[in-house]
UniProtKB/TrEMBL annotation:
This is aldehyde dehydrogenase (NAD(+)). Its EC number is 1.2.1.3. Belongs to the aldehyde dehydrogenase family. Keywords: NAD, Oxidoreductase. It is an enzyme of class 1 (oxidoreductase). Residues 13-482 form the Aldehyde dehydrogenase domain. PROSITE patterns: ALDEHYDE_DEHYDR_GLU. The keyword Oxidoreductase applies. Homotetramer. The active site is at 244. It comes from the Bacteria.
Length: 509
């Protein structure tokens, strides 16, 4: 089938409801390199005037945005459910995260603090100030089409930067709705520009923007492979991007764990949002004393999950985001090897009338649904152990000693989130100390974030940058130091410091 085109000849985004592929949510022409560069020029030109707005006034636009999102919470959540297939309850939670982010950063408009620093010399004052970087290009994924963009857009704008935003092609309608809320809140048009483009066009356009000095910061959420390309491009221009990449997030079940609680945590970590979160559970590491019992309970719980139409209250997870995401997940199933075994249902792959699921709500043939899959018997040398699957698949491994659990938790090279279930504070704190993940949960799931806590990972999961809370301010500002000397004579640091005498031979007694 030929690729759909706009009347102008431009290729089209055709965003479909993944629960009903006949329902076209929106069609939009894809922009080219010239559209991205033009947006960056406009944003770059508007930045000095935006930065001149007092920070508390910029904070008021953030406050207005949060209030408008709250007023339109149900409509925005319904659009998220329709466009990417997230269950409505989860979609409401995502919209609440946008509201929480705005609530938090409203206050930061009055707290973009610098410091006064004591000088080693008289008649001299030292200060530090935060300065906006300039223009940011923000590139976001589809799985959290409202919350994750807000993590970038809100602090970037608050700090006095302008933004060019390239959302996922799979979430074009949600992006436009969120943009409309920012506009209505008082954010000027050129301060926040949105461009629909595909990945290759975005990469080429970003390169040209960097060459022309139009972009001073990159924010990117996506795969590790794409993040590497963005990081390499930024590095050529001595920039450090804010990268939020993939994960292979472990959940350790210690021998003293509350197994029912651990099963609930694994269920939500692994299968909420159809496993399409960067923080979704990758591998359960269960102590050999509880491995078999845990696996049996998890398998039974997964069998009872209701999959299907995301508008129904009883549905635990809905469709995958789209056909492309389904194909990626099906490729992950090819990593299952003969020595692995499936727990619970042995059905895998796409849910259809010919490959049905007992607990299914709706018509599977209208959408893009996948069977929940548990793969036991995974080994450290298996590709499945170290590959992000991005779908409803959870691996299970057995461990003997705590040292082995730590090695397995870190050994795949990702470092986004991790969880441990234990009643021992000693075990919990030891795991916290030795686990390489940027986010640790104790007796809770690997997924979930709060607006005032740093979010981000290490290793293959990112470059150490953090989003959310006060920590993200360092991503969108630079520090400027000022020394103000009013002595009336030149005072030279480290050279003209007054010495204090002492008697080196003094002894007590």
């Amino acid at each position: 089938m030929p690729e759909p085109t706009h009347a102008s000849g431009a290729r089209l985004i055709v965003s479909r409801n993944p629960a009903d592929l006949t329902d076209i949510v929106v069609e939009r022409p894809l922009g080219g390199v010239e559209e991205l560069v033009a947006a960056a020029r406009a944003a770059h030109g508007a930045q000095p005037e935006w930065a001149a707005w007092p920070a508390p006034l910029r904070g008021r636009t953030v406050q207005n945005t949060g209030r408008l999102v709250a007023r339109n919470k149900e409509a925005l959540a319904g659009l998220i459910t329709r466009e990417i297939g997230k269950p409505y309850g989860e979609a409401l939670g995502e919209v609440q995260e946008v509201i929480d982010t705005c609530d938090f950063f409203l206050g930061e408009g009055r707290r973009l603090y610098g410091q006064t620093v004591p000088s080693e010399m008289p008649d001299k004052q030292l200060f530090t100030y935060r300065k906006p970087l300039g223009t940011a290009m923000v590139i976001t994924a589809a799985n959290f089409p409202a919350a994750v963009p807000s993590w970038y857009l809100v602090p970037a704008l608050l700090c006095g930067n302008t933004v060019v935003w390239k959302p996922s092609e799979s979430a074009a309608a949600v992006a436009e709705a969120l943009l409309a809320l920012f506009r209505a809140a008082g954010v000027p048009e050129d301060v926040l520009r949105l461009v629909h483009a595909d990945g290759d066009t975005t990469y080429a356009g970003l390169g040209q923007c960097l060459e022309e000095g139009l972009v001073q910061k990159i924010g990117f959420t996506g795969s590790t492979a794409a993040g590497r390309r963005v990081s390499e491009l930024a590095g050529r221009h001595l920039q450090s991007p804010c990268l939020e990449l993939g994960g292979k997030n472990p959940l350790v079940v210690a021998e003293d764990a509350d197994l029912d609680l651990a099963v609930q945590g694994a269920l939500f970590s692994g299968f909420a949002t159809a496993g399409q979160r960067c923080t979704s559970l990758g591998t359960v590491l269960a102590h050999r004393a509880v491995h078999d019992e845990f696996l049996a309970r998890l398998g039974a719980a997964v069998e009872d999950l209701v999959v299907g139409d995301p508008r129904r209250d009883e549905v635990f997870y809905g469709p995958l985001i789209g056909e492309r995401y389904l194909q990626g997940f099906l490729s992950s199933l090819e990593l299952v090897r003969p020595h692995h075994r499936l727990s619970g249902s042995t059905a895998t792959g796409r849910i259809t009338g010919d490959s049905p699921r007992k607990n299914f709500a709706g018509d599977p043939d209208t959408g893009v649904y996948a069977h929940p899959t548990i793969v036991a018997g995974v080994r450290p040398e298996d590709e499945l152990y170290r590959t992000e699957t991005f779908g409803p698949l959870v691996s299970v491994m057995e461990y003997g000693s705590f040292d082995e659990a730590v090695r397995l938790a870190n050994g795949h090279g990702y470092g986004l989130s991790a969880a441990i279930y234990t009643d021992s504070p000693r075990t919990a704190f030891a795991f916290r100390e030795r686990c390489s993940a940027g986010m640790i949960s104790v007796n809770n799931s690997t997924v979930g974030a709060e607006a005032h806590l740093p979010f981000g990972g290490n290793g293959l999961s990112g470059n150490g940058s953090r989003q959310s809370g006060i920590w993200v301010l360092d991503q969108f500002t630079s520090w400027q130091s000022v020394n103000w000397d009013y002595a009336g004579t030149l005072q030279r640091a480290q050279m003209d410091v007054r010495e204090i005498g002492a008697d080196p031979g003094f002894r007590l007694g």
